[in-house]
Amino acid sequence: MDEPWLLVGLGNPGREYAGNRHNVGFMVVELLAGRMGAKFGRHKRAHAEVAEGRLSIGGPRAVLVKPLTYMNLSGAPVAALSQFFKVPVENVVAVHDELDVPYGQLRVKRGGGEGGHNGLRSMSKSLGSKEYARVRFGIGRPPGRQDPADYVLSDFSAAERKELEFLVDRAADVVESVVTKGVEPTQNAYHGS
């Protein structure tokens, strides 16, 4: 219970990316920071913003992370922070957008492949392990022939934005469940819906 958790929201820094599908990880950790009453600030040892606190009274310490590198270089700040805060890889959770999951569905897993996600690929390489947990936020496949790279860097549609706040809130609940209950109980609780 004493080991801290590193909860990493994947995204791209800068206002122009803030509403992008690729930045849903940032949206989730920002909501978690609000729940903890914590503020993000620049970290002295890593190119990232961090917020620290506890997700619940008596719960484990949580370090929320928004890497300030671009998505494909997210791993270096995550690895630096996991060393700095002495977080074992099994206590690292990546929150990210997922093309292969329909919009609004959430999937949780530990380890496995990166599915072409550059942020995950960078994290796996820098951490030297794929055995961290992932909270996958479904964004669905791009419509028609749109390039997936353009699709992830576009903003959520008006129809998607109607549900987005609720879905980000639910994703934050899933992250809390991974920390407090573990990956398998969280899969059992959330994968049906």
Describe this structure in words.
TRNA binds at residues 17, 70, 72, 118. This is Peptidyl-tRNA hydrolase. By secondary structure, the chain is an alpha/beta fold. It has a single domain (5-190), classed as Peptidyl-tRNA hydrolase (Rossmann fold). It contains six helices and seven strands; from the N terminus they run E-H-E-E-E-H-E-E-H-E-H-H-H. It has helices spanning 24-36, 75-84, 118-127, 148-152, 158-180, 183-190; strands at residues 5-9, 41-42, 48-54, 61-67, 92-98, 106-110, 133-138. The protein has a seven-stranded mixed β-sheet, with helices on both faces. Strand 3 (48-54) and strand 4 (61-67) form a beta hairpin. The two termini are 29 Å apart. The mean pLDDT is 95.
Question: What is this structure, in a nutshell?
Answer:
This protein has 193 residues and is an alpha/beta fold. It has six helices and seven strands; from the N terminus they run E-H-E-E-E-H-E-E-H-E-H-H-H.
For the sheet with most strands, the description reads:
7 strands, mixed
SSE order in H/E notation? EHEEEHEEHEHHH
Q: What would the principal axes of the Cα set say about the shape? A: globular
The CATH C-level class name: Alpha Beta
Strand order of the largest sheet: 2-3-4-1-5-7-6
Poorly predicted ranges (pLDDT <50, ≥5 residues)? none
Name of the CATH architecture: 3-Layer(aba) Sandwich
Number of spatially distinct domains:
1
The average pLDDT score comes to: 95
- CATH evolutionary superfamily: Peptidyl-tRNA hydrolase
Structural class: alpha/beta
| Relative helix content | 25-40%
Radius of gyration: 15 Å
